[in-house]
Structures are given as C-alpha cells and as structure tokens.
Amino acid sequence: MNYYAGxxxxxxxxxxxxxxxxxxxxxxxxxPWQSKVLGQDSSLKLGGDILNSRDDKGTNISxxxxxxxxxxxxxxxxxxxxxxxxxxxxxxxxxxxxx
Length: 99
What we know:
By secondary structure, the protein is an all-beta fold.
C-alpha cells in the first residue's frame, strides 16, 4: 500500500498561487495481486485520489488572461464568480512483463 498527500497551489502550470487558495489532494494505491501469467511477472495495482480546491471570484484560468470559470464549470470572459472544485479518480493498472 502507498499513500500520498499534498497541499498545492490551486492551479497547475503557474509559478504563483494566483487564486489565493490551495488545492488539497490525497491518493491511495493498493497492490492486491502479484504473480506470474504465462511465465511473466505480473501485477495489478488499484488506485484512487480525491482533491478539493476553490477559485476566488475573478480568478483567471487562461494564458491569454481573458477566460474564467463560472460556478457551473463553463467558461466566460471577465469577471467570474467564486467556484469550488472537487474531484475523485479511480484507476487500475495491469502489468504483464518479461524478466
């Protein structure tokens, strides 16, 4: 089992925290199966993560500085209302490899 947690700036691809909030992220990975399939080392990894962040009113989400996120997730020109972002992801990875 592996786990990860992070407190990040609320946006990616930027060097400053331009929405004045942070993104909170947690991830859990499990390796429930590891064996051989047709003589090849094999494994199954399951993972999931959650995130929470908030964009303040007027937060710019484009490089051209003219697109903003509306509360329903749509895009509009300036100005923009505040918006909460929550996300959940589940994934699986089946690995079959030769030694």
